[in-house]
């Protein structure tokens, strides 16, 4: 693809006259797509002065905007076979520029690709902080911020090659799916390591590598029967994005007349999206307000914008052979626009999966955003979003394992009450469950480095309904406190990811005994989960916690698993008579963690801060 783009640039430089094409996106498409009417965005000085014609490919429409530097050319690609199709730009009937638009051969069964699901375990990586596989790209001329590993908020040099180098580590841990925070170019002057302020939606940030390297990562994962999820940002772009510097239309972004240079910060009140009592201004300020002055808010109500975002997402799915998307700040988008975006992608790939970040504080509010929501019907709304993130469970996890006593509102009752609201979700299996991520305090910081408490937390998210997600380094006890030390502290470098690191925690003999205790427990649990379908799609039956001991069963027609979590500070006796309705016919089981046989006829004891996962 790089060679093609170089040739593209050369031809335009050579043939260019009064108009000079600087961008053409997407630069190619695929045969056999449901989304076959492709709107290419052409950008260059006074490009709107040119007429456009094509050979063997139909031009359905040419759209001009108030900005003469843009043309939007809609092509009909239906029934076309792979090959190149000349597009000619003329001025006064004289050929000025020429481009061969390519239709590529699509992968076999691409439309039927199977996305991540509840059989998977997801590992969330912040690539700049995971592993530096290629020190030569740490600082690049084409982007502003340079590497400075001493700066906790700076670029540290982790990259795609570093991830590729450790795919075997992830597979051995029991991980089946990789979610990386965004890898597209972020050319802000500072704090670009998180890459959520993107300046080019068709280009991997050169400090991470190239588009080709991203494809190599995908191939390496698929070779090992693993999946790749792209972190996608629809709500905002970087202020340094070349399109923001030369807006195609005045309403490409949300500009506030009463704001500072058009900027007004979001009120972050996502409830205004579905609140039947909400005022229009509160709803508008949530959706149309900016996350930050460096992140202009994108207007999905503009059909040109929406087409661009839809095509870009489909392009990456096809190009990189993706298995899913995680959408940042999903509920801050225009809710009708993002629903159309989601519906179109899922229409192209009916077995695909997209999980949206909906950071809300109640199950009813989160469930509004899942496809076919019962709550959504109240507002006559369907997001078409298959999966959401269980932030209420995350909130419970951050409190209950530090609460040794239980009442109606503390300890394991927090878990019980969370799952009591599962009826609100249209698809309870397709929910992301997690103890921490890149925006929250480290779970092992919250648990103050107590490995036994960590074991309880990881047991819970690995055995309950939904899709478990681990944050990189949780499995070795990494800590970090954003409240005291800022975001950089929860995004520390993984030890061993850099050549001269004093410790290499990717290797068993490089980890401390305590780190191995974290790692070994996580690995054993995830490897077991991978091969236990009843945990993936079975039903759940749970019982009121007693003495801070929570017991639940995952079951289907062929198997039952009993999970017991003793969150108290002392050994507890579990009375099996309470569970007769589901234990009928079973007299014993084996806790796969300890390989201990458990007698279920009367009662059994379980040590403090211990969990059992009993196969009946």
TrEMBL record:
Q: Where is this region: Disordered?
A: 130-157
Under the GO molecular function aspect, what terms does this record hold? hydrolase activity, acting on glycosyl bonds
Q: Where is the Glycosyl hydrolase family 13 catalytic domain?
A: 124-529
Top-level taxon: Bacteria
Annotated Basic and acidic residues bias: 143-157
Keywords from the UniProt entry? Glycosidase, Hydrolase, Signal
Q: Where is the sequence biased in composition, kind Polar residues?
A: 131-142
Q: Which residues form the signal peptide?
A: 1-19
Q: Name one GO biological process term.
A: carbohydrate metabolic process
Which CDD domains does this entry report, sorted A to Z?
AmyAc_bac_CMD_like_3
Q: Protein name, please?
A: Glycosidase
* Organism per entry: Wenyingzhuangia marina
What's the source species' lineage? Bacteria, Pseudomonadati, Bacteroidota, Flavobacteriia, Flavobacteriales
């Amino acid at each position: 693809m790089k060679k093609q783009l170089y040739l593209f640039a050369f031809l335009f430089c050579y043939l260019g006259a009064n108009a000079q094409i600087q961008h053409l996106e997407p630069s190619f498409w695929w045969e056999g797509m449901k989304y076959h009417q492709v709107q290419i965005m052409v950008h260059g000085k006074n490009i709107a002065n040119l007429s456009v014609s094509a050979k063997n490919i139909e031009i359905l429409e040419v759209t001009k905007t108030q900005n003469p530097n843009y043309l939007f050319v809609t092509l009909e690609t239906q029934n076309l076979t792979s090959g190149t199709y000349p597009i000619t730009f003329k001025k006064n009937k004289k050929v000025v520029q020429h481009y061969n638009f390519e239709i590529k051969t699509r992968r076999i069964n691409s439309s039927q690709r199977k996305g991540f699901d509840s059989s998977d375990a997801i590992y969330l990586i912040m690539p700049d902080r995971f592993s530096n596989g290629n020190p030569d790209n740490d600082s690049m001329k084409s982007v502003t911020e340079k590497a400075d590993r001493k700066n906790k908020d700076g670029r540290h040099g982790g990259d795609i090659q570093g991830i590729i180098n450790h795919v075997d580590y992830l597979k051995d841990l029991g991980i089946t799916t990789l979610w990386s925070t965004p890898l597209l170019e972020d050319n802000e002057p500072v704090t670009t390591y998180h890459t959520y302020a993107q300046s080019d939606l068709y280009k991997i940030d050169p400090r991470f590598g190239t588009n080709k390297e991203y494809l190599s990562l995908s191939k390496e994962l698929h070779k090992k029967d693993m999946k790749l999820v792209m972190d996608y940002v629809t709500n905002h772009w970087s202020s340094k994005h070349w399109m923001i510097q030369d807006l195609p239309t005045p309403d490409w972004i949300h500009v506030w007349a009463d704001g500072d240079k058009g900027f007004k910060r979001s009120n972050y009140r996502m409830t205004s999206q579905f609140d039947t009592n909400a005022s229009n201004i509160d709803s508008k300020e949530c959706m149309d307000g900016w996350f930050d002055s460096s992140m202009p808010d994108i207007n999905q109500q503009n059909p040109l914008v929406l087409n661009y975002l839809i095509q870009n997402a489909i392009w990456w799915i096809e190009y990189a052979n993706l298995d899913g998307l995680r959408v940042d700040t999903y509920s801050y988008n225009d809710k009708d626009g993002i629903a159309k975006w989601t519906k179109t992608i899922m229409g192209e790939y009916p077995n695909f999966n997209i999980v949206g970040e909906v950071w809300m504080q109640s199950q009813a509010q989160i469930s509004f955003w899942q496809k076919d929501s019962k709550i959504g019907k109240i507002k006559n709304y369907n997001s078409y979003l298959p999966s959401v993130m269980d932030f209420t469970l995350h909130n419970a996890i951050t409190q209950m394992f530090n609460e040794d006593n239980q009442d109606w509102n503390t300890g394991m009752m927090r878990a019980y009450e969370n799952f009591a609201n599962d009826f609100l979700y249209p698809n309870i299996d397709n929910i992301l469950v997690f103890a921490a991520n890149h925006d929250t305090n480290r779970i092992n910081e919250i648990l103050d480095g107590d490995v036994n408490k960590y074991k309880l937390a990881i047991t819970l998210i690995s055995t309950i309904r939904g899709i478990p997600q681990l944050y990189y380094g949780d499995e070795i006890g990494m800590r970090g406190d954003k409240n005291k030390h800022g975001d950089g502290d929860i995004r520390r470098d993984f030890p061993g990811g850099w050549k001269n690191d004093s410790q290499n925690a990717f290797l068993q003999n490089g980890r401390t005994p305590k780190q191995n205790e974290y790692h070994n427990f996580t690995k054993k649990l995830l490897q077991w989960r991978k091969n236990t379908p009843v945990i993936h799609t079975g039903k759940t039956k749970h019982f009121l916690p007693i003495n801070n001991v929570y017991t639940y069963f995952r079951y289907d027609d062929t198997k039952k698993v009993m999970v017991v979590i003793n969150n108290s500070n002392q050994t507890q006796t579990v009375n099996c008579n309470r569970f007769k309705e589901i234990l009928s016919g079973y007299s014993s089981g084996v806790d796969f963690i300890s390989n201990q046989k458990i007698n279920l006829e009367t009662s059994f004891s379980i040590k403090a801060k211990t969990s059992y996962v009993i196969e009946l």
